[in-house]
Amino acid sequence: MRPWAALVVLLCGTFLANLDVFIVVVAMPALERDLGADGSQQQLVLAGYQLVYALGLAAGGRLGDALGSLRVFGLGMAVFTGASVVCGAAPTTAVLVLARLFQGAGTALMVPQVYRAARTLFTGAAQRRAYAAIGAVMGLGAIGGQLLGGWLLSADVLGLGWRAVFLVNVPVGVLALTLLPWAAGGHPPVRRETVRADLPGLGLAAAALGLFTLPLVAGGTGGMVWWGPACLAASVPVAACFLRHERALDARGGSPLVPPRLLGLDGFRRGIVLIVLVNCGLAAFVLMLGLLLQKGLRWSPLATGAGMVPAAVAFAAGSLIAPRLARGAEVRLLVLASLAATAGYAGCAVGALGTDPRWLLGAVCAVGGALGLCVTPALSVTLRTVPEPVAGAASGVVSTAQQLGAALGVCVYGFLFFAQVRATADVVAAFAVTTTALTTTSAAAAVLARGLPPAAAPAGLPEDALGAPAARDLPM
């Protein structure tokens, strides 16, 4: 077993997971032009991937426990790579959307194994370096997605057009699958334990989210569909059934997706909502910004990618310096950063309506930096009140909340954006209206942050505060 080599191979999955969110944003106008993808279908290409990704994270983590991280990672990478081939060859938007759902499923199998490996293969300073590497690769995927997507579209590599943004995943996936046996040291996977997945809970959660998001996506270009209000209303009792099922399963000694004892922690509840709000605003903002630059301001794909990079760099920088700025004052930093993001969103709305793009890009950087400052302290204050026996489950809930927030942001604010475009045929004005509406996410985050407990982590919480106590070996 080669621990660092294994981590490097697993990080290929983290890189592709983030790359495929951002690289697709730059390709949206090309999809509309070549495949006739309307606003609803564009939302599905983005949000469908993230919804399946989010819903499958818990199952992916449980499969890693049962079958071994590298075995499940290999399965996920194979699914993701195959789906990328189908995306690149898709003859219609419907085929592309379906393939994106399979990409999300593959990602859900891959990503939990990366965190699990960092938690179980390393201890102490080495574990902190492993988590830092994960964060750096996530940032690299975000930045690389925008630049690479813009370059591939501008260069029209091999005449593939937008198809290249999906096919570029294939060599990375093949390389990771080829190196996987070597990183494992030639040792076959060993089954360590039997884990029973909460399939009814997963089904109820998927139903609740589907009932809520489908009307918003389906009405992206034509207004709310006639059956939309009924679906939105039905999502509430289905969500209630999900919570009731989780409590009953926990009482029987099962393994629920969301352990009820976590929801009983006020700091954890507030923190999860805060994480959802931050990611909701971020994902929606990235989508709207890409559409503004290409369709509203008529920038080329390469210029669009380059124009979005400063925000990604500011986000990465904010994430890196946040631990030093906080130093026990995470709640105060969260409040200030959320207020700064609110001001940044407002500045973007004003800057888009102006004539000097430098003002817009400055406000975009402010949003990126402010949201970056939110990420690390939000994780810290959410997880520090979690007792050790459910720390692993808590980290899975946090990862799911991040992806669900992103998907919901694309659905809800995407609906508003495309409704404005439909009403006014003015992409710039639609961006200004939607970005103004995004201030509600960061303002609400500031209010929630004020109520978070400032106390230190309880005794027995793992050092990294992101999962279960570090083990000495990783089931392969």
UniProtKB/TrEMBL annotation:
Any transmembrane segments, and where?
43-60, 72-91, 97-118, 130-152, 164-185, 197-218, 271-293, 299-321, 333-353, 359-383, 404-421, 427-449
| GO MF assignments | transmembrane transporter activity
State where it is primarily located: membrane
- Stored Gene3D superfamilies: MFS general substrate transporter like domains, Multidrug resistance protein D
Q: What is this protein called?
A: MFS transporter
The alphabetical list of record keywords is: Antibiotic resistance, Membrane, Transmembrane, Transmembrane helix
- Tell me a GO cellular component: plasma membrane
Q: Where in the cell is it found?
A: Cell membrane
Q: How does the entry describe its membrane topology?
A: Multi-pass membrane protein
Residues in Major facilitator superfamily (MFS) profile domain copies:
6-447
Is the keyword Membrane assigned to this protein?
Answer: yes
Q: Give the organism the record lists.
A: Streptomyces paromomycinus (Streptomyces rimosus subsp. paromomycinus)
